[in-house]
Predict the structure.
Amino acid sequence: MKESKTQPGNSNHSSEVVIVGASAAGLFTAASVARGGRPVRVVESKPQLEPSARTLIVTDHFRTQMAAVAQDSVINEIRRFELFTDGRSAQIALKKPDLIIERSRLIAALAREAQQAGTSFSFDTRFLGVGPNERGLHLEIESGGKREELHADSVVGADGAASRVARAAGWPPVETVPLVQAIVRLPKDCPPDTTRVWFIPDDTPYFYWLIPESPDRAALGVIGEHGRDTKRCFEKFLEKKKLEPLEWQGARIPVYRGWVPVRRQIGNGEVFLVGDAAAQVKVSTVGGIVTGFRGALGVAQALLKKGAGRELAALRRELGTHWMIRRALHHFQQKDYSQLVDLLDVSARQSLAEFHRDESTRLLWNLVRRQPRLLLLGLRGLLMGRRSRG
Ligand SMILES: Cc1cc2nc3c(=O)[nH]c(=O)nc-3n(C[C@H](O)[C@H](O)[C@H](O)COP(=O)(O)OP(=O)(O)OC[C@H]3O[C@@H](n4cnc5c(N)ncnc54)[C@H](O)[C@@H]3O)c2cc1C
């Protein structure tokens, strides 16, 4: 990846959009804005584009967003889900396969797209702060160990869950939860096109998963609420399944608890947030790639004055539905999960096969139409949540 040096205080760059963070959401925004004709600079604190490996699962919606670029990062396809709880199981055969993507390949492909569209990059450049100036915004950065200033009309914070851009511009911090994932050998009894999910509410209100990335390797992971407990439960789970970790992957993931407005005016300039920085994560399954891209597209449209409203309103509805599902599931006890799996009869499984989790409203309506008792179970979950908060 070619780097162009930052040009401190250069007034020729006053109309430039500066994007902080060269990862999934930032690079997607950069490519979209640069293609639309605005000059874009991405600043990234790491010395070069060297994303750590991460095995991710996304729905087929990813293909629509990425077109040809997607092909480079897809390493496997998932055609079936198996859900387990307390000795019970349910299988769901997907109509459109989910995709397993390798994050380092995805980021390399997105960076190529962004660069081809005209984006310039400044690595080893850490964002420190932002404030108004007479032309728009001045950014304080540290580049190669030296403090400098940059000017921009617009800044996009794509700097992840602990976003410094968000803090500097006055957004409150987002809550995060730990996600731990280990690469393991694929168990002999697990087909490489099948994802397994275990609901074990004594360990976590979320779930464990096994995602095959090839015929012989898979990612086994868990989301928890507290770092140390999550790691301890995960190690026990690995032991129980007789699996050896070959590599570790992990980070803290934002918890969506309501829409984070993506724009703030500072003087004559504007600051936006995209991806994890704006908690654009489906909190039911804790997936942030597809929703982060949707947020990035909405912000790119706003920067290009192309009417971002519709994309962002649709994303808000989507994230809201996942928040409702999470609230319903979060206080489930073992008996509730057992009932959930028992209620997944042929017609309910058909809904789960036809609609994916990036069209959650359609999925939910279809599901409760075919299996109304799921609605009662969900309402009970919501009520339990309310009582425990009360
Ligand atoms: C182990 C693991 C598994 C996951 N699995 C899935 C999955 O299966 N499906 C799914 O959809 N999602 C998954 N996620 C979530 C998904 O990876 C994230 O939602 C997504 O990567 C967020 O991208 P982002 O660009 O918003 O932020 P990040 O990827 O966090 O990128 C932030 C970037 O900003 C840079 N930066 C930070 N601070 C500064 C600064 N001050 N100055 C300059 N640069 C800065 C960082 O170096 C980084 O490059 C997983 C996450 C983890 C950790």
Notes: The first strand starts at residue 17 and ends at 20. Residues 20-26, 43-46, 54, 56-58, 126-127, 158-160, 164, 179, 181, 249-251, 253, 275-277, 281, 287-289, 292 surround flavin-adenine dinucleotide (CB under 6 Å).
